[in-house]
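Thread title: Can someone regenerate the structure for this chain?

I was given the following input by a collaborator and told the matching C-alpha coordinates would be attached. They weren't. Posting the sequence so someone can regenerate them.
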Amino acid sequence: MKKHSARVAPLSACNSPVLTLTKVEGEERPRDSPGPAEAQAPAGADASGRTSHPCWRCSRAQLKKIFWGVAVVLCVCSSWAGSTQLAKLTFRKFDAPFTLTWFATNWNFLFFPLYYVGHVCKSEEKQSVRQRYRECCRFFGDNGLTLKVFFTKAAPFGVLWTLTNYLYLHAIKKVNTTDVSVLFCCNKAFVFLLSWIVLRDRFMGVRIVAAILAIAGIVMMTYADGFHSHSVIGIALVVGSASMSALYKVLFKLLLGSAKFGEAALFLSILGVFNILFITCIPVILYFTKVEYWSSFHDIPWGNLCGFSVLLLTFNIVLNFGIAVTYPTLMSVGIVLSVPVNAVVDHYTSKIVFNGVRVIAIIIIGLGFLLLLLPEEWDVWLIKLLTRLKVRKKEETAEGGADPGLGPQSKSRRARPSFAR
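Best answer:
Regenerated them for you:
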Protein backbone atom coordinates (compact mmCIF):
# COMPACT_ATOMS: atom_id res chain seq x y z
CA MET A 1 0.00 0.00 0.00
CA LYS A 2 1.39 3.39 -0.97
CA LYS A 3 1.81 5.92 1.76
CA HIS A 4 -0.22 9.07 1.42
CA SER A 5 1.87 12.14 0.81
CA ALA A 6 1.07 15.77 0.35
CA ARG A 7 0.91 17.01 -3.18
CA VAL A 8 2.18 20.16 -4.76
CA ALA A 9 0.37 22.15 -7.39
CA PRO A 10 1.23 25.38 -9.15
CA LEU A 11 0.66 28.49 -7.18
CA SER A 12 -0.39 31.74 -8.61
CA ALA A 13 2.55 34.03 -8.58
CA CYS A 14 0.59 36.47 -6.48
CA ASN A 15 2.35 34.69 -3.72
CA SER A 16 5.68 35.59 -5.19
CA PRO A 17 7.20 38.86 -6.32
CA VAL A 18 9.08 37.31 -9.19
CA LEU A 19 9.93 33.69 -9.21
CA THR A 20 7.50 31.69 -7.15
CA LEU A 21 5.05 29.95 -9.41
CA THR A 22 4.46 26.73 -7.54
CA LYS A 23 3.23 25.94 -4.10
CA VAL A 24 2.33 23.03 -1.95
CA GLU A 25 -1.29 22.21 -2.30
CA GLY A 26 -2.88 19.96 0.27
CA GLU A 27 -5.78 19.80 2.61
CA GLU A 28 -5.32 21.24 6.03
CA ARG A 29 -5.50 18.90 8.94
CA PRO A 30 -9.06 18.31 10.08
CA ARG A 31 -10.06 19.90 13.30
CA ASP A 32 -9.76 17.85 16.40
CA SER A 33 -12.88 16.12 17.62
CA PRO A 34 -14.78 17.95 20.36
CA GLY A 35 -13.21 17.63 23.77
CA PRO A 36 -14.98 16.10 26.74
CA ALA A 37 -16.26 19.48 27.88
CA GLU A 38 -17.82 20.13 24.48
CA ALA A 39 -19.08 16.67 23.61
CA GLN A 40 -20.66 16.09 27.02
CA ALA A 41 -21.94 19.56 27.81
CA PRO A 42 -25.36 18.45 29.11
CA ALA A 43 -23.70 16.01 31.52
CA GLY A 44 -21.30 18.69 32.65
CA ALA A 45 -23.83 20.59 34.71
CA ASP A 46 -22.59 21.96 37.97
CA ALA A 47 -24.19 21.55 41.38
CA SER A 48 -26.44 24.59 40.88
CA GLY A 49 -28.00 23.01 37.83
CA ARG A 50 -26.43 25.38 35.31
CA THR A 51 -25.04 23.96 32.13
CA SER A 52 -21.35 24.63 31.62
CA HIS A 53 -20.42 26.09 28.25
CA PRO A 54 -17.98 24.26 25.98
CA CYS A 55 -14.45 25.51 26.30
CA TRP A 56 -12.22 25.87 23.27
CA ARG A 57 -9.05 23.85 23.52
CA CYS A 58 -5.98 23.93 21.32
CA SER A 59 -3.81 20.87 21.12
CA ARG A 60 -0.04 20.97 21.26
CA ALA A 61 0.14 20.04 17.57
CA GLN A 62 -2.08 22.99 16.64
CA LEU A 63 -0.03 25.37 18.78
CA LYS A 64 3.13 24.10 17.12
CA LYS A 65 1.61 24.60 13.68
CA ILE A 66 0.53 28.13 14.55
CA PHE A 67 4.00 28.91 15.89
CA TRP A 68 5.60 27.69 12.68
CA GLY A 69 2.98 29.66 10.79
CA VAL A 70 4.07 32.90 12.43
CA ALA A 71 7.70 32.11 11.57
CA VAL A 72 6.76 31.32 7.96
CA VAL A 73 4.72 34.53 7.66
CA LEU A 74 7.67 36.60 8.88
CA CYS A 75 10.05 34.79 6.52
CA VAL A 76 7.74 35.18 3.50
CA CYS A 77 7.10 38.84 4.26
CA SER A 78 10.75 39.75 4.82
CA SER A 79 12.13 37.76 1.87
CA TRP A 80 9.55 39.09 -0.59
CA ALA A 81 9.82 42.71 0.50
CA GLY A 82 13.61 42.42 0.71
CA SER A 83 13.98 40.95 -2.76
CA THR A 84 11.72 43.61 -4.27
CA GLN A 85 13.60 46.47 -2.61
CA LEU A 86 16.98 44.97 -3.48
CA ALA A 87 15.93 44.67 -7.13
CA LYS A 88 15.02 48.36 -7.13
CA LEU A 89 18.40 49.18 -5.59
CA THR A 90 20.24 46.98 -8.09
CA PHE A 91 18.79 48.83 -11.09
CA ARG A 92 20.47 52.04 -9.93
CA LYS A 93 23.84 50.48 -10.74
CA PHE A 94 22.91 47.67 -13.10
CA ASP A 95 20.12 48.52 -15.54
CA ALA A 96 19.56 45.03 -16.95
CA PRO A 97 16.24 43.45 -15.85
CA PHE A 98 16.39 40.50 -18.23
CA THR A 99 19.95 39.63 -17.23
CA LEU A 100 18.90 39.81 -13.59
CA THR A 101 15.96 37.53 -14.36
CA TRP A 102 18.25 35.03 -16.06
CA PHE A 103 20.80 35.13 -13.24
CA ALA A 104 18.21 34.59 -10.49
CA THR A 105 16.39 31.82 -12.37
CA ASN A 106 19.63 29.84 -12.66
CA TRP A 107 19.51 29.36 -8.90
CA ASN A 108 16.41 27.20 -9.33
CA PHE A 109 18.81 24.39 -10.12
CA LEU A 110 19.45 24.12 -6.36
CA PHE A 111 15.90 23.04 -5.55
CA PHE A 112 16.32 19.31 -6.07
CA PRO A 113 19.76 19.08 -4.38
CA LEU A 114 18.38 20.93 -1.34
CA TYR A 115 15.33 18.69 -1.32
CA TYR A 116 17.52 15.58 -1.42
CA VAL A 117 19.54 16.86 1.55
CA GLY A 118 16.30 17.25 3.49
CA HIS A 119 15.21 13.78 2.36
CA VAL A 120 18.42 12.22 3.67
CA CYS A 121 18.10 14.03 7.00
CA LYS A 122 14.41 13.31 7.62
CA SER A 123 13.37 10.19 5.76
CA GLU A 124 13.67 6.80 7.42
CA GLU A 125 14.04 5.00 4.07
CA LYS A 126 17.06 6.70 2.56
CA GLN A 127 17.54 6.43 -1.20
CA SER A 128 20.44 7.27 -3.45
CA VAL A 129 20.31 10.34 -5.67
CA ARG A 130 19.66 8.20 -8.75
CA GLN A 131 16.87 6.25 -7.08
CA ARG A 132 15.20 9.40 -5.82
CA TYR A 133 15.58 11.08 -9.20
CA ARG A 134 14.00 8.14 -11.04
CA GLU A 135 11.12 8.02 -8.60
CA CYS A 136 10.43 11.73 -9.01
CA CYS A 137 10.65 11.43 -12.80
CA ARG A 138 7.50 9.29 -12.74
CA PHE A 139 5.68 12.58 -12.45
CA PHE A 140 6.26 13.10 -16.18
CA GLY A 141 4.89 9.68 -17.18
CA ASP A 142 5.89 6.05 -17.35
CA ASN A 143 8.91 6.82 -19.52
CA GLY A 144 10.21 9.47 -17.14
CA LEU A 145 11.92 12.64 -18.32
CA THR A 146 12.54 12.13 -22.02
CA LEU A 147 13.61 14.71 -24.57
CA LYS A 148 10.05 14.94 -25.88
CA VAL A 149 8.66 15.48 -22.40
CA PHE A 150 11.30 18.12 -21.71
CA PHE A 151 10.26 20.24 -24.70
CA THR A 152 6.50 19.66 -24.39
CA LYS A 153 5.94 19.75 -20.63
CA ALA A 154 8.86 21.73 -19.23
CA ALA A 155 9.96 24.22 -21.88
CA PRO A 156 6.60 26.07 -22.12
CA PHE A 157 6.59 26.64 -18.38
CA GLY A 158 10.18 27.84 -18.55
CA VAL A 159 9.12 30.49 -21.07
CA LEU A 160 6.16 31.57 -18.92
CA TRP A 161 8.41 31.69 -15.87
CA THR A 162 10.91 33.94 -17.65
CA LEU A 163 8.20 36.26 -19.01
CA THR A 164 6.63 36.61 -15.58
CA ASN A 165 9.93 37.46 -13.95
CA TYR A 166 11.09 39.85 -16.64
CA LEU A 167 7.83 41.81 -16.80
CA TYR A 168 7.79 42.16 -13.02
CA LEU A 169 11.39 43.37 -12.78
CA HIS A 170 10.95 45.72 -15.73
CA ALA A 171 7.89 47.21 -14.00
CA ILE A 172 9.98 48.00 -10.93
CA LYS A 173 11.97 50.39 -13.12
CA LYS A 174 8.81 52.28 -14.10
CA VAL A 175 6.79 52.55 -10.88
CA ASN A 176 7.44 52.28 -7.16
CA THR A 177 7.69 48.94 -5.43
CA THR A 178 4.50 49.51 -3.40
CA ASP A 179 2.36 49.74 -6.53
CA VAL A 180 4.15 46.79 -8.14
CA SER A 181 3.73 44.49 -5.14
CA VAL A 182 0.07 45.31 -4.56
CA LEU A 183 -0.86 45.10 -8.24
CA PHE A 184 0.84 41.73 -8.53
CA CYS A 185 -1.57 40.44 -5.87
CA CYS A 186 -4.28 40.68 -8.54
CA ASN A 187 -2.76 37.49 -9.93
CA LYS A 188 -4.92 35.45 -7.58
CA ALA A 189 -8.04 36.96 -9.13
CA PHE A 190 -6.78 36.14 -12.62
CA VAL A 191 -6.14 32.56 -11.53
CA PHE A 192 -9.71 32.22 -10.31
CA LEU A 193 -11.16 33.59 -13.56
CA LEU A 194 -9.00 31.32 -15.73
CA SER A 195 -9.72 28.29 -13.53
CA TRP A 196 -13.43 29.01 -13.71
CA ILE A 197 -13.34 29.26 -17.52
CA VAL A 198 -10.74 26.62 -18.43
CA LEU A 199 -10.82 24.12 -15.57
CA ARG A 200 -14.54 24.50 -14.82
CA ASP A 201 -13.85 25.14 -11.15
CA ARG A 202 -16.72 25.78 -8.77
CA PHE A 203 -18.39 29.17 -9.14
CA MET A 204 -18.16 31.31 -6.01
CA GLY A 205 -19.87 34.67 -5.81
CA VAL A 206 -17.43 36.00 -3.24
CA ARG A 207 -14.51 35.34 -5.59
CA ILE A 208 -16.27 37.15 -8.42
CA VAL A 209 -16.58 40.11 -6.07
CA ALA A 210 -12.86 39.78 -5.29
CA ALA A 211 -12.02 39.79 -9.02
CA ILE A 212 -14.13 42.94 -9.50
CA LEU A 213 -12.32 44.59 -6.60
CA ALA A 214 -8.96 43.68 -8.16
CA ILE A 215 -9.92 45.21 -11.52
CA ALA A 216 -11.28 48.32 -9.79
CA GLY A 217 -8.03 48.62 -7.83
CA ILE A 218 -5.98 48.46 -11.04
CA VAL A 219 -8.02 51.29 -12.56
CA MET A 220 -7.76 53.40 -9.42
CA MET A 221 -4.03 52.79 -9.18
CA THR A 222 -3.64 54.05 -12.74
CA TYR A 223 -5.73 57.10 -11.94
CA ALA A 224 -3.65 57.84 -8.83
CA ASP A 225 -0.72 58.99 -10.99
CA GLY A 226 -2.86 60.90 -13.46
CA PHE A 227 -2.63 58.44 -16.39
CA HIS A 228 0.94 59.44 -17.22
CA SER A 229 2.56 57.30 -19.91
CA HIS A 230 5.40 56.23 -17.62
CA SER A 231 3.11 54.91 -14.87
CA VAL A 232 0.63 53.39 -17.31
CA ILE A 233 3.42 51.36 -18.93
CA GLY A 234 4.63 50.18 -15.54
CA ILE A 235 1.14 49.15 -14.43
CA ALA A 236 0.60 47.35 -17.74
CA LEU A 237 3.84 45.44 -17.20
CA VAL A 238 2.77 44.32 -13.72
CA VAL A 239 -0.66 43.23 -14.95
CA GLY A 240 1.02 41.34 -17.79
CA SER A 241 3.34 39.64 -15.32
CA ALA A 242 0.39 38.65 -13.12
CA SER A 243 -1.46 37.32 -16.18
CA MET A 244 1.52 35.20 -17.27
CA SER A 245 1.88 33.67 -13.83
CA ALA A 246 -1.86 32.94 -13.68
CA LEU A 247 -1.61 31.23 -17.06
CA TYR A 248 1.34 29.23 -15.72
CA LYS A 249 -0.69 27.96 -12.79
CA VAL A 250 -3.77 27.03 -14.79
CA LEU A 251 -1.78 25.26 -17.52
CA PHE A 252 0.23 23.37 -14.91
CA LYS A 253 -2.93 22.11 -13.29
CA LEU A 254 -4.46 21.29 -16.68
CA LEU A 255 -1.46 19.48 -18.21
CA LEU A 256 0.46 18.09 -15.22
CA GLY A 257 -2.00 18.06 -12.34
CA SER A 258 -0.38 17.97 -8.91
CA ALA A 259 3.01 16.84 -7.69
CA LYS A 260 4.68 15.59 -4.53
CA PHE A 261 7.39 17.57 -2.79
CA GLY A 262 10.22 15.80 -4.57
CA GLU A 263 8.50 16.03 -7.95
CA ALA A 264 7.94 19.76 -7.49
CA ALA A 265 11.59 20.28 -6.52
CA LEU A 266 12.72 18.33 -9.57
CA PHE A 267 10.42 20.34 -11.84
CA LEU A 268 11.80 23.65 -10.53
CA SER A 269 15.35 22.40 -11.01
CA ILE A 270 14.47 21.43 -14.59
CA LEU A 271 13.28 25.00 -15.17
CA GLY A 272 16.70 26.17 -14.00
CA VAL A 273 18.39 23.79 -16.44
CA PHE A 274 16.15 25.02 -19.26
CA ASN A 275 17.08 28.58 -18.38
CA ILE A 276 20.80 27.79 -18.52
CA LEU A 277 20.62 25.88 -21.80
CA PHE A 278 18.16 27.92 -23.85
CA ILE A 279 17.77 31.39 -22.29
CA THR A 280 21.47 32.20 -21.88
CA CYS A 281 21.73 33.38 -25.48
CA ILE A 282 19.24 36.21 -24.91
CA PRO A 283 21.30 38.18 -22.33
CA VAL A 284 24.31 37.74 -24.63
CA ILE A 285 22.37 39.20 -27.56
CA LEU A 286 21.09 42.07 -25.42
CA TYR A 287 24.64 42.81 -24.30
CA PHE A 288 26.16 43.00 -27.77
CA THR A 289 23.22 45.01 -29.12
CA LYS A 290 23.70 47.35 -26.12
CA VAL A 291 20.09 47.03 -25.02
CA GLU A 292 21.37 45.85 -21.66
CA TYR A 293 24.98 46.93 -21.61
CA TRP A 294 27.59 47.39 -18.89
CA SER A 295 31.07 48.71 -19.50
CA SER A 296 32.97 46.18 -17.40
CA PHE A 297 32.19 43.03 -15.46
CA HIS A 298 33.91 44.63 -12.48
CA ASP A 299 31.14 47.26 -12.44
CA ILE A 300 28.44 44.64 -11.91
CA PRO A 301 27.15 44.73 -8.31
CA TRP A 302 27.62 41.01 -7.69
CA GLY A 303 26.64 41.41 -4.06
CA ASN A 304 23.24 42.79 -5.01
CA LEU A 305 22.69 40.13 -7.67
CA CYS A 306 23.59 37.28 -5.33
CA GLY A 307 21.62 38.79 -2.46
CA PHE A 308 18.56 39.18 -4.67
CA SER A 309 18.86 35.58 -5.87
CA VAL A 310 19.33 34.21 -2.35
CA LEU A 311 16.27 36.09 -1.07
CA LEU A 312 14.14 34.77 -3.92
CA LEU A 313 15.42 31.25 -3.47
CA THR A 314 14.61 31.46 0.24
CA PHE A 315 11.18 32.84 -0.55
CA ASN A 316 10.50 30.05 -3.04
CA ILE A 317 11.62 27.32 -0.64
CA VAL A 318 9.52 28.63 2.25
CA LEU A 319 6.45 29.22 0.09
CA ASN A 320 6.64 25.90 -1.72
CA PHE A 321 7.44 23.64 1.22
CA GLY A 322 6.07 25.63 4.15
CA ILE A 323 2.87 23.58 3.91
CA ALA A 324 4.74 20.82 5.68
CA VAL A 325 4.77 22.82 8.93
CA THR A 326 1.84 25.25 8.78
CA TYR A 327 -1.35 26.28 7.02
CA PRO A 328 -1.30 27.55 3.40
CA THR A 329 -3.46 30.55 4.28
CA LEU A 330 -0.86 31.86 6.73
CA MET A 331 1.77 31.84 3.99
CA SER A 332 -0.51 33.91 1.77
CA VAL A 333 -1.00 36.40 4.61
CA GLY A 334 2.74 37.02 4.50
CA ILE A 335 2.33 38.27 0.93
CA VAL A 336 -0.24 40.86 2.01
CA LEU A 337 1.87 42.00 4.95
CA SER A 338 4.80 42.72 2.64
CA VAL A 339 2.80 45.48 0.92
CA PRO A 340 2.84 47.86 3.93
CA VAL A 341 6.51 46.99 4.44
CA ASN A 342 7.27 48.14 0.90
CA ALA A 343 5.11 51.22 1.48
CA VAL A 344 7.10 52.22 4.55
CA VAL A 345 10.41 51.74 2.73
CA ASP A 346 9.17 53.72 -0.28
CA HIS A 347 7.98 56.52 1.97
CA TYR A 348 11.50 57.10 3.28
CA THR A 349 13.51 56.25 0.16
CA SER A 350 11.45 57.59 -2.77
CA LYS A 351 9.10 60.41 -3.69
CA ILE A 352 5.92 58.35 -3.60
CA VAL A 353 2.75 60.29 -2.73
CA PHE A 354 0.14 58.33 -0.81
CA ASN A 355 -2.92 60.27 -1.91
CA GLY A 356 -6.45 59.16 -1.15
CA VAL A 357 -6.92 57.35 -4.46
CA ARG A 358 -3.73 55.28 -4.06
CA VAL A 359 -4.57 54.31 -0.48
CA ILE A 360 -8.10 53.26 -1.44
CA ALA A 361 -6.75 51.25 -4.38
CA ILE A 362 -4.29 49.43 -2.11
CA ILE A 363 -7.05 48.65 0.40
CA ILE A 364 -9.42 47.42 -2.32
CA ILE A 365 -6.85 45.10 -3.89
CA GLY A 366 -5.79 43.81 -0.47
CA LEU A 367 -9.44 43.15 0.45
CA GLY A 368 -9.95 41.27 -2.81
CA PHE A 369 -6.85 39.19 -2.12
CA LEU A 370 -8.11 38.27 1.35
CA LEU A 371 -11.53 37.33 -0.02
CA LEU A 372 -9.84 34.93 -2.41
CA LEU A 373 -8.25 33.19 0.57
CA LEU A 374 -11.66 32.12 1.87
CA PRO A 375 -12.17 28.34 1.58
CA GLU A 376 -14.88 26.95 -0.66
CA GLU A 377 -17.01 25.97 2.33
CA TRP A 378 -16.71 29.35 4.07
CA ASP A 379 -20.46 29.96 3.87
CA VAL A 380 -21.22 26.63 5.61
CA TRP A 381 -18.74 27.46 8.36
CA LEU A 382 -20.28 30.91 8.78
CA ILE A 383 -23.79 29.47 9.09
CA LYS A 384 -22.60 26.97 11.70
CA LEU A 385 -20.88 29.73 13.67
CA LEU A 386 -23.97 31.96 13.63
CA THR A 387 -26.16 29.02 14.63
CA ARG A 388 -23.85 28.17 17.52
CA LEU A 389 -23.85 31.78 18.72
CA LYS A 390 -27.65 31.93 18.50
CA VAL A 391 -28.01 28.71 20.53
CA ARG A 392 -25.60 30.01 23.16
CA LYS A 393 -27.55 33.27 23.41
CA LYS A 394 -30.81 31.36 23.92
CA GLU A 395 -29.19 29.27 26.66
CA GLU A 396 -27.98 32.39 28.45
CA THR A 397 -31.44 33.97 28.16
CA ALA A 398 -33.07 30.82 29.53
CA GLU A 399 -30.66 30.73 32.46
CA GLY A 400 -31.31 34.39 33.18
CA GLY A 401 -35.08 33.78 33.17
CA ALA A 402 -34.77 30.74 35.43
CA ASP A 403 -32.85 32.57 38.18
CA PRO A 404 -35.77 34.87 39.31
CA GLY A 405 -38.08 31.86 39.64
CA LEU A 406 -35.66 30.22 41.99
CA GLY A 407 -35.22 33.41 43.97
CA PRO A 408 -37.97 33.01 46.63
CA GLN A 409 -37.06 29.42 47.30
CA SER A 410 -33.43 30.28 47.71
CA LYS A 411 -34.29 33.19 49.98
CA SER A 412 -36.51 31.02 52.20
CA ARG A 413 -33.77 28.43 52.41
CA ARG A 414 -31.23 31.06 53.34
CA ALA A 415 -33.60 32.48 56.05
CA ARG A 416 -33.84 29.15 57.89
CA PRO A 417 -31.03 28.73 60.44
CA SER A 418 -29.13 25.50 60.16
CA PHE A 419 -28.15 23.89 63.43
CA ALA A 420 -26.69 20.78 61.89
CA ARG A 421 -22.91 20.85 61.98
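Residues 5 and 83 are 31 Å apart (CA to CA).
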